[in-house]
Amino acid sequence: MTTPAGKRSDIFKKQVTPYVYLLPTIILMLILLIIPIIMVIRYSFFDNVIINKNPTFVGLENFAKVLTDPTFLVAIKNTLYFVIISIIAHLVIGMFFAMLLNTRYLGNKTKGIFRVIYALPWMFTASVIAILWKMMMNPNGIINYLLQAGGLISQNIEWLGSRQFALFAVTLINIWSGYPFYMISILAGLQGISTDLYEASALDGANAVQTFTRITIPQLKPILVSLLMLDFVWTLQQFALIWMTTGGGPINATETISTYIYKQGFTKYQYSMASAGAVILLVVCTIIAIFYVRQQKARD
């Protein structure tokens, strides 16, 4: 017969056991995530960190310098263009291909082939995507050749080397590499919508536009909201693709917040300025993350 002390011991073991299994992950998160974030936040309030063994506390001075830096203001403008255009294009293209792959007019084998083709950009790493598009956007590359063959341009364009076209070019690359995530997610949502809803709407005489706006979009709303929030954070933090294609140039034409922070820290060795910029980016991403968590809870 179990004694009261034994019962308490069993209850304690049951309560502690889950945390024992989580302990390795918690330790890794603490070392690789929590501590670095705390260090960066601390650095943002000091001057000459890392280089100087005894940095000077300057309060919000680093944030004031960053927010009044003309280059940072240009980076904000470029980032907003890059993020907004990318998200809208991801949504439109992803929705189009998802609905195309969900149609009953294509056979299963045909759908399978197109799913692989449409999902290919998502399978490439940033380095492969950068090399591929730098070759295609070269003045003597395939893109200029096709545009000239179609009579759309009369001379070769430096897509990634021109201040006029560089930001548009990297945005186009990001759109191409990111739409499959939307396509796959939306396709899964479409396949989860009951066909009874569409059959009932057909009996009521609803046309394609009414069916799309009254049934498809409302049913996909939770998925779309989640996709938009996640994509906003991911695109806001996009660094590798921009750095490997243009490096933030030419003359800050493609400078974003991520490349600005990197240059401040590892090119100019202004770690305090870089930390202040990183904290600003962290605050924005945290706000979006809070909305995302609330949306997920409401959905559950």
UniProtKB/TrEMBL annotation:
Domain ABC transmembrane type-1 spans what residues? 76-292
Please give the GO cellular component terms listed in this UniProt entry.
plasma membrane
Q: How does it sit in the membrane?
A: Multi-pass membrane protein
Task: Name a biological process GO annotation.
Answer: transmembrane transport
* Key words of the record: Cell membrane, Membrane, Transmembrane, Transmembrane helix, Transport
Q: Which family does it belong to?
A: Belongs to the binding-protein-dependent transport system permease family.
User: What's the protein called, per UniProt?
Assistant: Sugar ABC transporter permease
